[in-house]
């Protein structure tokens, strides 16, 4: 436990594995069998702790912390499994961050209230600030993932293994390629999740009711977000761009109609 507090994950796992191996050599003794069971429980708890720390990477990528985690998972033989789990954490982070961003602008939030319902409850006057907060939260996750991908790119270059017939090296290269492809696909997937949350907010918040100044503010925020996406994964944000164009045309038509009606009343 003390090692985990000090973030010495590799040393903690190494000690447990060595102890478990030593216990296996004397498993005929009842007390040793009990010890082996406790060691397994300790290992399971340690892995849970690793997973908990791994989830924090989604919000703030820490190079040193991630290096320690990766080394620990490598010792467990779970490098690929950890990468799978990390991607699940990123998906959860997008969802949780979206809810946290929006619920602050909603009156009362019940436990079973869905994200879409929260978006519908945001007042038009608060919508631009809420959207900005939502985008900022999601940007932090995108930034973390972007740094994660860059770290792996740099790390792979430093640890490049020439093609050989050595089974261990072949497996290592296969694992590295798997992770590289996983990370590449993750860029698009995370942006897709982010885009879905922002689009849901826009569709649910009744843009046509916004004052003109607020509407322009929101367009500016969305413009910045699409620029970030292009750097993040090269995506042109077609879904968001089409939505912006469609909503802008509708808004201008409604705005124009409203002004014409005001003018008509004034002239009468």
UniProtKB/TrEMBL annotation:
One of its GO terms (molecular function) is SNARE binding. GO terms for biological process: endocytic recycling; protein transport; retrograde transport, endosome to Golgi. The keyword Transport applies. The keyword Transcription does not apply. Keywords: Coiled coil, Protein transport, Transport. Residues 2-151 form the Vacuolar protein sorting-associated protein 54 N-terminal domain. One of its GO terms (cellular component) is EARP complex. Pfam families: Vps54_N. PANTHER family: SYNDETIN. This is Coiled-coil domain-containing protein 132. It comes from Epicopeia hainesii.
């Amino acid at each position: 436990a003390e090692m985990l507090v000090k973030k010495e994950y590799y040393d903690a796992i190494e000690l447990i594995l060595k102890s478990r191996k030593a216990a296996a050599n004397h498993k005929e003794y009842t007390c040793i069998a009990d010890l082996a069971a406790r060691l397994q429980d300790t290992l399971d708890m340690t892995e849970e702790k690793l997973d908990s720390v791994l989830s924090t990477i989604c919000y703030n990528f820490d190079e040193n912390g991630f290096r320690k985690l990766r080394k620990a998972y490598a010792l467990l033989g779970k490098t690929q499994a950890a990468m799978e789990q990390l991607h699940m954490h990123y998906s959860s982070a997008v969802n949780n961050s979206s809810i946290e961003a929006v619920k602050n602008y909603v009156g009362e939030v019940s436990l079973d209230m869905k994200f879409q319902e929260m978006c519908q409850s945001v007042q038009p006057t608060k919508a631009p600030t809420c959207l900005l907060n939502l985008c900022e939260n999601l940007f932090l996750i995108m930034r973390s993932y972007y740094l994660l991908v860059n770290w792996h790119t740099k790390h792979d270059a430093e640890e490049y293994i020439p093609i050989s017939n050595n089974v261990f090296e072949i497996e290592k290269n296969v694992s590295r390629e798997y992770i590289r492809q996983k990370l590449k696909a993750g860029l698009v997937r995370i942006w897709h999740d982010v885009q879905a949350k922002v689009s849901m907010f826009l569709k649910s918040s009744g843009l046509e009711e916004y004052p003109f100044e607020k509407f322009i503010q929101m367009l500016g925020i969305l413009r910045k977000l699409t620029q970030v996406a292009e750097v993040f994964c090269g995506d042109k944000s077609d879904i968001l761009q089409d939505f912006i164009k469609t909503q802008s045309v509708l808004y201008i038509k409604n705005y124009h109609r409203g002004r014409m009606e005001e003018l008509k009343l004034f002239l009468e």
